[in-house]
């Protein structure tokens, strides 16, 4: 949860880049963390539920028009994310990774886990993902997402 991440960043005095003390950078992190709930999280989770869990629970194939509509909704917020949050910066809050980047990538891995490679035709998003993975550590990133990436095999 966002509240837990913020608590941990404050309690353990994590490096400043995770939740910056600079008010403008912190406002950027807070802005993204507030926006993402109904946008990236909402649309990404909806695609995951629609494409993976619903057919698994109902035993019925997914109507293609339903998947198309849900994918379209996600694509709209991905475009907003690139234009409004990433812009031409390496990370959401500027030149260093923050909790906003971590939360964003975790949420974007749900659609990837459902078999939708949202990075494939978005070079800016793919490059940002690469930077976040490197900042966290590729091995840790893969370990953290191992379960969700197997979901499409259900």
From TrEMBL:
Main location (coarse class): cytoplasm
Keyword check for Transferase: yes
GO BP of this protein: glutathione metabolic process
Gene coding for it: Gstt1_1
Catalytic activity: RX + glutathione = an S-substituted glutathione + a halide anion + H(+)
Family, per entry: Belongs to the GST superfamily. Theta family.
Pfam families (UniProt xref): GST_C (PF00043)
Domain GST C-terminal: 22-154
Keywords: Cytoplasm, Transferase
Taxonomy, superkingdom: Eukaryota
InterPro entries: Glutathione-S-Trfase_C-like (IPR010987), Glutathione-S-Trfase_C_sf (IPR036282), GST_C (IPR004046), GST_C_Theta (IPR040077), GST_Theta (IPR051369)
Gene3D superfamilies: 1.20.1050.10
Protein name, as recorded: glutathione transferase
This enzyme's EC code(s): 2.5.1.18
PROSITE patterns (UniProt xref): GST_CTER
Subunit structure of this chain's protein: Homodimer.
Record flagged with keyword Membrane: no
A GO cellular-component term linked to this record: cytoplasm
Organism, scientific name: Mesembrinibis cayennensis
A molecular-function term among this protein's GO annotations: glutathione transferase activity
Location in the cell: Cytoplasm
